[in-house]
Amino acid sequence: MADERKTVFSGLQPTGNIHLGNYLGALKNWVRLQDEYDTVYCVVDLHAITVDYDPVKFHQDRLEAAKVLMAVGIDPGRSLFYFQSQVPQHSELAWILGTMTPTGVLNRMTQYKDKVAKGVAANLGLYSYPVLMAADILLYRASLVPIGDDQKQHLEMTRDLAERFNNRFGEVFPIPDPLIPETTARIMSLQEPGNKMSKSDPNEKSRVLILDSPDDITKKIKSAVTDSDPDVRFDWDEKPGISNLLEIMSGCTGQSIDDLVAEYGDKGYGVFKQAVADAVIAELASVRASYKALDDAEVARLMTKGALDARQRAEGFQQEIRKFTGLSGI
Ligand code: ATP
Ligand code: LTN
C-alpha cells in the first residue's frame, strides 16, 4: 500500500564537530518526526565540498557523521538515510532549478555573503549551494523541513522555487514548511554569545560536541562567558551568555525558561552552570552510549542499502520531473 504520510526531508553536512546547536536546533526534531512522518535524512556531502577540504579526512568524516546521526536516533529501519552524492538525481534537479533561479536572489543569500566575507573562496558551488538544497527537498516532494534558524532564508528560496516551477510546468511540488524550534532555533557560542555556535569556530571551547565526555561538557559550560550581575534572567540584550545557557537547559530538560528562571534566578552562576552542565550530560549520555555500540562496517552497510533505496525512489520522481520539463524520451 502506498505511504500516505507527509514527507519530511533534512540534511547535515559531514564537516566534523557535530555540536549541541545542531542537536537542539535540528536533530532532536529529526528523531521525533520519525514516529509520525515518512522521513528522509541525508548526509549532504556535496554541500560540504563547496569549501576547501582534505579528501582523505573527508571520507572518514562522512562515515563519522552517519554514525553520529544513528547514535542520536536516526533509525535506517524507519527513515530513508543515505549520502547525497550516492543519489545523482539531486544534482540533475539542482541543474533544472538553477535555470529558474535569478542570480539576484542568490546575491542576497546571507550565508554565502558571510562565508565570503570571512575569507572562504567564492566558487560556483558555494554560490549555488541553496539551489542544491532546494533540489534535495523538492526531489522527495517534502512538506516539512526540520532546520535551525540559520537555514530559514534558504528554505524561503526553496518555497519560491517550488512555486515558480509549479506555475510554469504544473502542480508538481508541495510548498515545504520549515520546522524551527521555538526556544533552541539558534544556540550561540559559549565564548562569544553574539555568534552562533558553529562547527567551524576555531575556539573549541565555543561549542559542546555531541560526543564530548561529561568532564569536557562541565568544563566548557563552566567557562562559558556570562555577564556582570549575578542574576539568572532571560534577556538577550543585557545577558546573552545566561540567556543562551537558559535555552540550552530548556532544550535539554523540556522545562520552560520561566520555570528555570524561577528556580535559579537568585542562586548565582556557579549553581546554575552546574545544573546546565548536568542537564546536557544527562541528555547526551544515551547518544554517547549508542555511539560506542555502533560498528563502522555495519554503519557503512546500512548507508549503502539506504543509497540503493533512495536511488530507486528518486528515479521515479526524476522521470516525472523530466516529463513536466520536456526532458523525457528521445
Ligand atoms: P555550522 O554553522 O555549525 O558549521 P551548518 O549550519 O553550516 O553548521 P549543518 O551541520 O549542515 O551546517 O547544520 C545542520 C543543522 O543544524 C541545520 O539544520 C542547521 O540549521 C542547524 N544548526 C547549525 N548550527 C546551529 C545552532 N547554532 N543553533 C541551532 N541550530 C543550528
Ligand atoms: N544547508 C543545510 C544543510 C542542508 C539541508 C538540505 C537542510 C542541505 N540540504 C535540505 C535541510 C534540507 C545546513 O544546515 N547548512
Tell me what the structure shows:
The protein is mainly α and 330 residues long. 54% of the residues lie in helices and 7% in strands. The chain contains 14 helices and 5 strands. A 3-stranded parallel sheet has the order 1-2-3. A two-stranded parallel ribbon has the order 4-5. Strand 1 (7-12), helix 1 (20-33) and strand 2 (38-43) form a beta-alpha-beta unit. Helix 11 (240-253) crosses helix 13 (269-293). Adenosine-5'-triphosphate binds at residues 12-13, 21-22, 25-26, 147-148, 150-151, 185-187, 196-200.
Shape assignment: globular
- If helices are DSSP runs of H or I spanning 4 or more residues, what is the number of helices? 14
Number of strands: 5
Instruction: Give the ligands present.
Output: adenosine-5'-triphosphate, L-tryptophanamide
Low-confidence stretches: none
Oligomer: single chain
Structural class, from secondary structure content? mainly alpha
Major sheet? 3 strands, parallel
- On the 0 to 100 scale, the average pLDDT is 96
What is the helical fraction, as a range of percent?
40-55%
Report the portion of residues in β strands.
Answer: 5-15%
Q: What is the ordering of alpha helices and beta strands?
A: EHEHHEHHHHHEHEHHHHH
- Roughly how many Å is the radius of gyration? 21 Å
Cα end-to-end separation: 32 Å
Q: Please list the strands of the largest sheet in the order they lie side by side.
A: 1-2-3
